[in-house]
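Support reply, case 0932

Customer input (verbatim):
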Amino acid sequence: MLHHGYTPQEVDHINGDRADNRIENLRAANRSENQCNRGALANNTSGYPNVSWHKKSKAWLVRVVKNGKTKVNIYVKDLELAGLVALEARSLYHGKFAQLEGTQP
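Our regenerated output:
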C-alpha cells in the first residue's frame, strides 16, 4: 500500500519465499494467480508440482488447473516426462505466475 498507493487483493512472493518481503519480490495477485506460484505440496510423492501417482491407471497423473478449470489432465508412464509436461503446462497456463523453481526432486 505504501509503495504503490493501493492495497492489492493478495500479495504474491515472486521467488516463493514468504519471508522475503523486499518490494522487488512482491507483486499484486488475485487468488488464482497466487495459487499458481506455489510449489509441490508437503504430501506430494512425485517431487514435481502438479504430478501425482494414479493407482488405478498405474501411471503419473499431470493435472494443471487455472481459474478453477482443469487445463491439463493426462497420464504419463515416466516420472521425468510427467514432470516436464507439468512444467510446460504451468508455463503455458500460469504465465508469469508459473512456479518454475524447485520442479525436480
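We compared this against your earlier run and they match. Two observations from our side: The longest strand covers residues 59-66. Residues 10-97 form one domain. Please reopen the case if you see a mismatch on your end.
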